[in-house]
Amino acid sequence: MIFDDIGSFPFPEGITREWAEKNYQSREYAEMVRRAYLMKLKAGVEMPNYPQFRDMNRMFLEPMKKEAFQEEPYLVKKEHAVIPEVEALMEMRIEGLRVCITGPFELYYTEFGGVIYDDVLEKISTSILRFIENLDDSTVRCISLDEPSLGTNPELQPTKDQIEIAYGRISFRGDVQIHLHSPLFYTEILEIETVNVIGIESAKDEKAMDFVDADDLESHDKFLRVGIARSDIDGIVAEYNSRHGVNVWGDEGGVMRAIDEIENPDKIESRIRKAVDLFGERLKYIGPDCGLFSFPSQECALKLLENIREAKSRI
Q1: Which residues in the chain come in under a pLDDT of 70?
Q2: What is the model's pLDDT at position 17?
Q3: DSSP state, 145?
Q4: Alpha carbons 250 and 78: distance in angstroms, whole number
Q5: 271-306: per-residue pLDDT in tens?
């Protein structure tokens, strides 16, 4: 059972998304990425994702759509299929890295909506393959394709053949996760041999675990990544405010108290134990439900990660 994170992370004080999008190739940005990665490690994350400070769609679509980087529309040349954040971390001596890549269906839906044309999907999927092929699999131990719309957006209903187009050609030595925001689509992934870990969010709604059948995982030789800590900081703070008749937004100490009360190690431990009871050895990864970008500060995000570390140490 490996403690990982989904990727996105708050900015240091004074840095904005606009600055990051303009300066992601700068030394200052690379150093910001390296510092945040080390923060995650210190907080106890065993397989940290590169700190994802940029928009998850834009950072992959831009090179696919830039004419100078293309072989064809949405088909990026292999030499340009690189993730600057990963390149920055490769300059350090690190032992393990998780790499989140926005999934082909999410990118397709962002650009074209729910009507799927196989030829365009194939180009986007081939571009994703090139990002994967350029990774150093001696350091990158896990890749995760982030597909938040699968199972949550009724407009997006790919066929089995289209699922095969999207994922069937992946070749990677380490673990290949698909991060689903809902468990409803997991049965569609069971037949895809190239994916060995299915990720679901269950901290905000623990009943999500009940939708996954451990026998299905066993019979298809699949593993699970379970979200065992809430990442909806708005909801966490709102619940705390309601309990105590206060408003701690804008008060970092108050937000810290909210995290420690609503998402304390005891509560996280109980979710981990439930996941272990349900899935046993098929449970391979745990961590926050989703990314932590919406947290008001890096310190607040680290508090949640530290609480997960404490909870996992008790198992």
Answers
A1: none
A2: 97
A3: E
A4: 44
A5: 999 999 999 999 999 999 999 999 999 999 999 999
What is the token pair recorded at 8? Answer: 């996105």
Question: What are residue 72's DSSP bridge partners?
Answer: 75
How far CA 128 is from CA of 62, 103, 135, 146, 169, in Å, comes to: 13, 8, 11, 12, 10
pTM summary value: 0.96
What backbone torsions phi and psi does residue 57 show, to the nearest 5 degrees?
-85, -50
Structural contact between residues 49 and 7, judged by C-beta atoms closer than 8 angstroms: yes
Q: Identify the three-state secondary structure at position 179.
A: strand
Instruction: Identify which of 131, 309, 34, 180 has the alpha carbon closest to the alpha carbon of residue 9.
Output: 34
Q: In what order do the strands lie in the sheet with 197-201?
A: 2-3, 283-288, 223-229, 197-201, 175-180, 140-147, 97-102
Q: Label residue 272 exposed, middle or buried (CB < 10 Å: 0-12, 13-18, 19+).
A: buried
Which amino acid, residue 79? E
Give the model confidence (pLDDT) of 116-128 as tens digits. 999 999 999 999 9
Domain segments of the chain as ranges: 2-313
Calculate the average pLDDT of the chain.
Answer: 97
pLDDT at 133: 98
CATH classification for the domain delimited by 2-313, as one of 3.20.20.210, 3.30.980.10, 3.65.10.10, 3.90.870.40: 3.20.20.210
Q: Taking CA 111 as the corner, what is the angle to CA 33 and CA 117, rounded to the nearest 5 degrees?
A: 125
Concatenate the DSSP letters of all residues of 10-77 into one string. Answer: PPPTT--HHHHHHHTTSHHHHHHHHHHHHHHHHHT-SBPBPPB-S-TTHHHHHHHH-GGGEEETTEE-
